[in-house]
# Entry
Amino acid sequence: MTAMDDFRSDTVTRPDGAMRAAMASAEVGDAVYEDCPTTRRLEAMTAERLGKEAALFFPTGTQSNLAGLMAHCGRGDEYLVGQMAHTFLYEGGGAAVLGSIQPQPLPNEPDGTIALAAIEGAIKPDDIHHARTRLLTLENTFAGMVLDPAYLGAATGLARRHGLGTHLDGARLMNAAVALGCGADVLARGFDTVSLCLSKGLGAPVGSVLAGPGDLIGAARRLRKMLGGGMRQTGILAAAGIHALERNVARLAEDHARAAGLAGILAGFPELGSGPARTNMVFMTPAGTDVDTFRRFLAGRGIAVGGRNGSLRWVTHLDVDDASLDRVRAACEDYFSGNGRGQGSNTA
Ligand SMILES: *Cc1c(COP(=O)(O)O)cnc(C)c1O
# Structure
């Protein structure tokens, strides 16, 4: 694929020259032996930014979340999770399949939170009939929406009063922090463990980091090895992560502004059914046009869009710019005003 306006996800970014240079010159050792200096630097830097004691580099956020859940929960324990959450819905059921952890899914409210009453009502009494409820997990951002510190404090406080551990899937936590103008540590505060993706809006090619107290991160290190994530000269990858944390956090504000611009452009085409920008994402469910036909038309113009089940998801990131938005506007104008109608948009 050559140059394309790729709005499918913020995972599609390609490392630029400066990031590749940082990777090429990274000092490396064997990270399983814990003597890769660049990996250790990334882990220390992430722990500090998230206000945690320790951190551990992982190949993916899926594995970082799974090791986090397994560090908290043993076989037959239960974790409370939003039923639209990534760990429940988009990680192959790994907590149950590989961790023997029973998920207790709970409804996600329209703002991405889980109602406190639903959390409290799902915590099982100590009774031989039940799995042991051990952990609450939340996700921030959730479908681009920011969960604020007041809610996070209330939910994690509730969990703690009931003796539960807390895990945050903070794949896009830096987007939330930038949107709120606070430190990521403020949003991580109530959680024991936090998983942060380097390979989303931060622009690194590979990697996530799990941060938390030393004992849980120690347990996660053992689990990472068991799960096949004990990689060796990871300094090459960690260097990209360090570069991402140093250069690409504050600029997430540009992605958010660009998502707002994109939402404004798309709102000009009522057939699409508009949606507001949520940090770096815009969602909509078109009612006035066939989504697959529209998607194919855009692909023909070099524009890729995500989404499933009849909805569209547009994600802004390092590799789309204002010219990309101009091309989206022009493509929509053509599709809805003239050439595109002939593509069968209203005929199905
Ligand atoms: C991307 C993502 C993850 C981790 O995904 P990987 O592709 O395994 O790195 C976890 N949670 C959320 C919310 C995500 O968006």
Notes: Residues 251-346 form a domain with the Aspartate Aminotransferase, domain 1 fold (CATH 3.90.1150.10). The pocket of pyridoxal-5'-phosphate is lined by residues 60-62, 65, 86, 139, 169, 171, 197, 199-200, 208 (CB under 6 Å). The CA atoms of residues 123 and 133 lie 6 Å apart. Confidence is low (pLDDT under 50) at residues 342-348.
